[in-house]
Design a protein that fits this description.
Blueprint (H helix, E strand, L loop, with lengths): L8 H4 L2 H8 L8 H13 L5 E5 L5 H6 L5 E6 L2 H10 L5 E5 L2 H7 L5 E5 L8 H9 L7 E6 L7 H11 L11 H11 L2 E9 L4 E7 L1
Parallel strand pairs: 1-2, 1-4, 2-3, 4-5
Antiparallel strand pairs: 5-7, 6-7
Helix pairs in contact: 2-5, 7-9
Length: 209
């Protein structure tokens, strides 16, 4: 998962956790990732350049690369990027160990920014979205967010406990309304807002300046 610096403090504490997670990751897309790939392709073209923020082991970035001009996939956890490079890639795909702050400082403008399963770990999510939108020439941002705050469940309780005792980064129990409010506070406009998975309450949102 990506580190944002000041607005992503809960993620900063999760480097060891994500390093362990990376060692168990496989290269095949799951059902939700396949759905995301289909939706992403509808928004992009062969000339698109994509930044994948918080790419993990790079499965989505690897799947998107054949359909666009360029993909830069970034994650601050070295273990994630090492695993991504071990799995392999394509000539137009580059994996980098970077925080979002580093991306902002280094410049670079993309056709779109993809950010999946990151927002729920960020302490200042509206600031996070506002910043990643700066990296897209027309502010196109595509996000997927697990909204475990939509209903009480054993999984949500376990994740909250693990975050409280420091086993994993703090996980914010967002609702669908929370995500809409976060996007509005960021100053972006909602282009698409849909449920990817009803069991996990995963939201797909497309935003633009």
């Amino acid at each position: 998962m990506i580190l944002l610096g000041k607005s992503g403090s809960s993620l900063i504490r999760g480097g060891i956790f994500w390093g362990i997670v990376s060692s168990f990751g496989g290269s095949r897309l799951d059902k939700i990732e396949r759905d995301i790939l289909t939706r992403v392709r509808k928004r992009l073209s062969a000339s698109s350049a994509v930044l994948d923020v918080g790419c993990g082991i790079g499965n989505l970035a690897r799947a998107i690369a054949p359909y666009v001009r360029k993909v830069v996939a970034v994650d601050p956890v070295e273990g994630m990027i090492e695993r991504a490079n071990m799995i392999g890639g394509l000539p137009n795909l580059e994996f980098q160990v970077k925080t979002l702050d580093m991306c902002l400082n280094n410049g670079g403008v993309y056709s779109a920014v993809l950010c999946t399963h990151v927002l729920q770990y960020v302490d200042k999510p509206d600031e996070f979205l506002r910043n990643i939108a700066k990296l897209s020439d027309d502010g196109l941002v595509m996000i997927a967010v697990a909204c475990l705050g939509e209903r009480r469940s054993l999984l949500a309780s376990i994740i909250s406990l693990m975050g409280a005792i420091g086993i994993m980064p703090r996980f914010h129990q967002l609702t669908f309304l929370d995500v809409r409010s976060i996007i509005e506070l960021s100053g972006l406009n909602i282009v698409d807002f849909d449920i990817l998975d009803k069991d996990m309450n995963i939201i797909w949102a497309v935003c633009k300046k």
